[in-house]
Amino acid sequence: MANEYDRSDKDSDGGGSFVMGLLTGTVLGAGLGMLFAPKAGSELRNQMREQAGNLANTASDGYRRAAETAGQYAGRAAETANQYVERGREMAGDLAGRARDAVVKGAEEAQRYVHDATAGSTDMADRMASASSSGTSGQSSTGSSSSGPRPAAFSTDPTPRPGGSQSGSGGFGGSRG
């Protein structure tokens, strides 16, 4: 029984070569039969010429069909590639638009944050100034008058001053010496 399985495995390997041998034998047999047939030489040559012409026509038609099919596949591939390129461009444009919108939104939020922070610091400076003018003798712990310019940290003037202070006051109203 094991020999039957081995034989069936060998048969499946040589199936293609058997068919090739059969076709080759058929072609050679037909050619030799034509050569040895009892016909006149001119008649045999004409018949062989016709067969060669038919074979050439068949090969030419096969080549033409293959070229047309390849051209169609190439055309389809080019169309598909163009579609993917266009979709890629659309997606890139869409992503660029989204990114631009996100940057604009972030910039607007940053501006709001800065505006809110500066408004809050101005309110705090005003409260400190009103508290110091109503409850103190007009002198701060540094010995300077509260009626002087506001500290640079609480300034509403966005113009930067050299040395980080306003009007050369040295930061908190004191003079530099």
Question: What report would you give on this structure?
Answer:
With 177 residues, this protein is mainly α. The chain contains 3 helices and no strands. It is rod-shaped, with a radius of gyration of 49 Å. The termini are far apart. Residues 137-146 and 164-171 have low confidence and may be disordered.
What secondary-structure arrangement, pairings included, does this model have?
Blueprint: H1 2-13, H2 15-36, H3 41-135
Short description:
The chain is mainly α and about 180 residues long. About 75% of the residues lie in helices and about 0% in strands.
| Portion in helices | over 70%
| Main sheet attributes: strand count, strand direction, barrel closure | none
C-alpha termini separation: 115 Å
Cα-atom Rg, whole angstroms? Answer: 49 Å
Mean pLDDT: 74
- Uncertain segments are 137-146, 164-171
Strand percentage, roughly?
under 5%
Shape: rod-shaped
Quickly give the structural class. Answer: mainly alpha
Number of beta strands: 0
Secondary-structure element string: HHH
Helices, by number, come to 3
